[in-house]
Amino acid sequence: MSDTHAQEATKPKVLPKPNSDFYQTFQMLSEAEQEKVNKVREFMQNSVSPIINDFWAKDEFPFDLVPGFRDLQIAGLGFEGYECAGGSNLLGCYVAMEIAKVDCSFATFYGVHSGLAMGSIYLCGSEEQKKKWLPPMARLEKIGSFGLTEPLIGSGASGGLLTSARREGDTWILNGQKKWIGNSTFGDLTIIWARDVADGQVKGFIVENNTPGFKVEKIQHKMALRVVQNGLITLEDCKVSEENRLQNDTSFRDTARVLRMTRGFVAWEAVGCQMGAYENALLYAQQREQFGKPIASFQLVQDLLVKMVGNITACQCMVMRLSQLQDQGKLADEHASLAKAFCTVKMRETVGYARELLGANGILLDYNVGRFFADAEAIYSYEGTREMNTLIVGRAVSGFSAFI
Question: Domains along the chain?
């Protein structure tokens, strides 16, 4: 063997960096959009990644990160005017995926505020309400929540909300409870959905969290999305002015418009969760040695890696097309529901493969995979269970409704 060949043989092997964008979906964004995503990616890697496990373990939210997050100017992506970030739905959802790739809790904080709360006002509010509330929310000077789910009502929200709204002159009296409401323990306002006792229709209300009769209790002992501060809201004769009723919301059909938009967002978040688990698992496999060599060189480990990247790539292609449909004004309920159902099922598979690859280390926060594995369980359930979304798609493809 020549000296040159000997030197080549002794050089350390240069391994590919973990990259979950196997089909280069990033290239589908414009240069300006790529620049925006890169800023978000840098913030998440440099500011969130080093500290998020500690906050997850403590069941606390990293409030010190909010100013830096505000500087990214991404609140209200996809919404035009009112100081919102604007841009395409594709960009907004790609940003959500990048956030979730580092931490799903932070992505949920963003999605609840920017998607559900701001989206409710953007889609269902009057011009005056948009001008009043959206600019400070876009600047993250006011943090929003979304109160739909109740202790006894989850999937049956369209026809069974127990929270009531009774009008007395120009005032509405709200009574009831809301559960699993992210951001509500520290936020400034919550979109409360309640049933009007007069006509039986669901209506939306902008309720400031310091309103008398509005009480929030933090939900304890969660095993997933522990950085998200979920609250149990109790409304006891909570008085809200007619001025704060969402003026362009008249029934649950309007609520569903918000959910259609954000359900696609959750599908993207599920893809980001998979990407984070995969990239951390791949890095581990490249570094972890057994039997004298890295486990990434073993066939069974490579089989797990390929299953993961296959799931991720399939889901990425699906949600990219989903956002294109939304930007074209062609998004239907069944489109969003299929993406949410499919991507969360594949997410469960992918994070399971990642945890399996790490063996016992897969349940330690130190390697990050355990956090994605746990957080996936919450993403799998919220914004419509797999079963409910399946029935929405099933109705669309068969022509028959299987809802009870």
Answer: 25-138 (1.10.540.10), 144-244 (2.40.110.10), 252-398 (1.20.140.10)
